[in-house]
């Protein structure tokens, strides 16, 4: 087996009576992005701080290329630290110096580079992170998302070998969140750095990770590839992952069509670049207006939400549902053909038949008429065209009734 | 020994054990403070020298304190002139006013009052600034960048305090002597020549050296206590976050002011 770059073994850490880590084991492999997931306050940041030596474990071992960190000489520790960079959850920017000085600080203090070279590197990094025009501003004058990007720029300006990201995208808008994920992914492809990311951005973060570890109850309860975590039957892991998805639905029923639009555009770009196929299905409740009239205005929302929940129990982890208009649900399915899609619709109909999809007992005896239309993603098409074509009559391929 | 006797003995020894615990705590804290200072002091000389940061701190601790030092120096000298005159005139020795004012200022009041004023102006700010850096993880960020926070934050302040304190004390002394001249000669009519002649002849190099050593000692006390309180804000048991910083700033001002007076007494008893 490959020797891990960093290995945490049986780590215990308590703050007074609060036992945060109770025998955590984690292996970080070289050149891979490892994501640590887990509930808030479970100790993910504490675990991350142990890796870089900001916190010392009460007991347990931390090994770097098989060597105990505690037994390293000072010079070795300095060399070890030089390989690292850390992006803090709360940014930890120096608030009494400007944005430019913040990003330039590690270069100024730890490299023999000349002022002009430092300026070039800082400008380049600021351009990459869309930070033009803020060089002379102080961190307190920036928005939360911008501060996050300045912190990222500061961490990456030295081109480190190992980068620890503590929730790098929390507080960022979807476009910038994707930009950060893309940057982590591109950097890894380009420089092959080792990344450890603490993140809640499920499933987006899985696309850029090679390994996922889940922390629960002070221990790592799952460690493996993103594919493996989707296939695992461990109820704790599944509850967490699906719990995150449900979180979105509790607020707005299901995820918004804006998020759907973004994801479809991403898939279209992927199809264009890497030839990875995808399809979309639009489910429409044909008589939703009538139902709303007869059962009240919230009935429609309840039906759409219940339908989406049922859909998600039978779809794969990578498939995602979005609200699309008042009476439609858009299902995005990477890597699926027409035949498989039809099977999915039959499965859905079978599953929801006889279920109280109305969310009302007893309901008024009304029936739901649901239609499904399907379209495979095609190269060169636009998002709008694809949606129009999907909803056209020739692409409607399934209809069913639920009473 | 029976259990009841043991309990009675433990109760009787409660005050003693509390004093013991307190003494251990104080000794441990003093040890930590001493190590903090020594490390910070030695790192001043680590290469490359942080000249720009030291100059920046000299400006903050020294230059920006000049006005307040001039004001306190002037009024201290003036009040010494008044009080000294009314005391000396009773013995017909008002001619010695210059000597009384100069010696009081150079040996005692100059170093002590300069230190107290700098504590209020710069010491509290140092504790608060470093404390906020600590609670907002800025010090952790330095560590992750492999920048030694003691070298980056504390050493320039120690160097700047060691340079600024004697100079501020000197300004305080000179302005104070002129303040004494204002009240003694201009207001109360003592011959200026006599005032300055007595001041000049009574002050020996030993007195100036004593004042200089005191100002250096106070620089060490003030900068170490204020930086230490800020640096370890996160370890305070009384409060966290902004409250922790407020406790650190208060402790920095109170402890360093009291220590300045204690160190002053100890040094005077050795230097006299």
Task: State the share of residues found in helices of chain A, binned by percent.
Answer: 40-55%
If you average the pLDDT of chain B, what whole number results?
Answer: 89
Tell me the number of helical segments of chain A per DSSP (H or I, 4 or more residues long): 14
Give the ordered list of helices and strands of chain B: HHHHHHHHHH
**Strand portion of chain B:** under 5%
- The structural class of chain A is alpha/beta
CATH class of the largest domain in chain A equals Alpha Beta
Mean pLDDT of chain A: 79
How many strand units of chain A?
15
Overall geometry of chain A:
globular
Describe what you observe in this structure.
The complex is a heterodimer of chains A (403) and B (272). By secondary structure, chain A is of the alpha/beta class. Chain A folds into two domains: 6-250, Rossmann fold (3-Layer(aba) Sandwich); 254-402, Alpha-Beta Plaits (2-Layer Sandwich). Chain A has helices spanning 44-52, 74-82, 99-110, 115-128, 144-156, 174-191, 204-208, 226-231, 235-252, 257-274, 288-295, 297-314, 338-352, 383-391, and strands at 6-15, 18-28, 33-37, 59-64, 67-68, 84-87, 162-166, 194-198, 211-216, 219-224, 278-285, 320-323, 328-334, 368-376, 396-402. In chain A, β9 (211-216) and β10 form a beta hairpin. Chain B has one domain (67-271). Helices cover 83% and strands 0% of the residues of chain B. Chain B has helices at residues 3-12, 14-42, 51-61, 66-88, 97-135, 138-144, 149-187, 192-202, 205-231, 241-271. Chain B starts with a helix and ends with a helix. The mean pLDDT of chain B is 89. Classes of the chains: A alpha/beta (403), B mainly alpha (272). Chains A and B meet through α2, β6 and α3 of A and α5 and α6 of B.
């Amino acid at each position: 087996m490959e020797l891990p770059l960093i290995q945490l073994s049986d780590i215990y850490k308590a703050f007074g009576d609060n036992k945060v880590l109770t025998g955590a084991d984690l292996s970080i492999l070289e050149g891979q992005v490892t994501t640590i997931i887990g509930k808030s306050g479970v100790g993910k940041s504490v675990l991350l701080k142990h890796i870089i030596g900001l916190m010392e474990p009460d007991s347990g071992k931390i090994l770097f290329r098989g060597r105990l960190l505690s037994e390293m000489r000072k010079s070795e520790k300095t060399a070890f630290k030089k390989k690292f960079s850390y992006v803090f959850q709360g940014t930890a920017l120096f608030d009494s110096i400007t944005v430019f000085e913040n990003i330039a600080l590690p270069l100024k203090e730890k490299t023999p580079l000349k002022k002009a070279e430092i300026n070039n590197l800082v400008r380049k990094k600021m351009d990459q992170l869309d930070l033009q025009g803020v060089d002379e501003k102080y961190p307190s004058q920036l928005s939360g998302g911008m501060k996050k990007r300045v912190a990222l720029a500061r961490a990456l300006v030295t081109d480190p070998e190992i980068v620890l990201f503590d929730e790098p995208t929390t507080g960022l808008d979807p476009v910038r969140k994707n930009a950060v994920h893309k940057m982590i992914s591109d950097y890894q492809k380009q420089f092959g750095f080792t990344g450890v990311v603490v993140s809640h951005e499920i499933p987006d973060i899985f696309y850029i990770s090679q390994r996922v570890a889940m922390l629960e109850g002070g221990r790592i309860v799952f460690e493996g590839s993103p594919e493996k975590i989707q296939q695992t039957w461990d109820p704790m892991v599944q509850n967490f992952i699906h719990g995150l998805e449900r979180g979105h639905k509790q607020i707005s029923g299901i995820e918004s069509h804006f998020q759907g639009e973004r994801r479809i555009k991403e898939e279209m770009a992927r199809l264009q670049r890497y030839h990875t196929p995808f399809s979309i299905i639009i489910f429409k409740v044909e008589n939703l207006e009538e139902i709303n009239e007869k059962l009240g205005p919230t009935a429609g929302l309840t039906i759409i939400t219940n339908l989406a929940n049922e859909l998600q129990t039978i779809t794969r982890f990578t498939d995602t549902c979005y609200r699309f208009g008042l009476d439609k649900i858009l299902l995005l399915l990477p890597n699926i053909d027409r035949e498989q899609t039809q099977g999915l619709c039959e499965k859905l109909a079978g599953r929801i038949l006889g279920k109280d999809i109305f969310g009302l007992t007893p309901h008024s005896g009304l029936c739901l008429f649901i239609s499904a239309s399907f379209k495979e993603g095609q190269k060169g098409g636009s998002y709008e065209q694809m949606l129009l074509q999907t909803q056209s009559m020739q692409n409607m391929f399934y209809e069913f009734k639920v009473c | 020994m029976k259990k009841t006797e043991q309990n009675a003995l433990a109760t009787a020894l409660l005050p003693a054990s509390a004093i013991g615990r307190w003494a251990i705590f104080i000794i441990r804290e003093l040890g930590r403070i001493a190590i903090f200072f020594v490390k910070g002091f030695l790192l001043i000389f680590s290469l490359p020298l942080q000249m720009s940061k030291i100059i920046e701190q000299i400006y903050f601790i020294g230059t920006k304190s000049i006005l307040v030092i001039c004001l306190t120096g002037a009024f201290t000298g003036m009040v010494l002139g008044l009080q000294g005159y009314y005391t000396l005139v009773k013995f017909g020795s008002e001619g010695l006013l210059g000597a009384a004012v100069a010696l009081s200022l150079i040996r005692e009041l100059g170093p002590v009052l300069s230190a107290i004023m700098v504590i209020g102006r710069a010491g509290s700010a140092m504790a608060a600034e470093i404390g906020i850096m600590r609670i907002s993880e800025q010090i952790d960020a330095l560590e992750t960048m492999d920048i030694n926070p003691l070298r980056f934050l504390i050493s320039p302040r120690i160097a700047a305090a060691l340079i600024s304190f004697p100079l501020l004390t000197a300004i305080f002394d000179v302005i104070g002597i002129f303040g004494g001249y204002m009240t003694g000669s201009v207001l109360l009519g003592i011959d200026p020549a006599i005032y300055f002649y007595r001041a000049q002849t009574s002050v020996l190099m030993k007195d100036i050296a004593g004042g200089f050593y005191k100002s250096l000692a106070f620089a060490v006390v003030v900068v170490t206590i204020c930086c230490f309180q800020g640096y370890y804000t996160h370890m305070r048991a009384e409060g966290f976050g902004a409250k922790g910083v407020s406790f650190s700033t208060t402790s920095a001002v109170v402890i360093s002011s009291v220590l300045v007076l204690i160190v002053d007494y100890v040094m005077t008893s050795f230097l006299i």
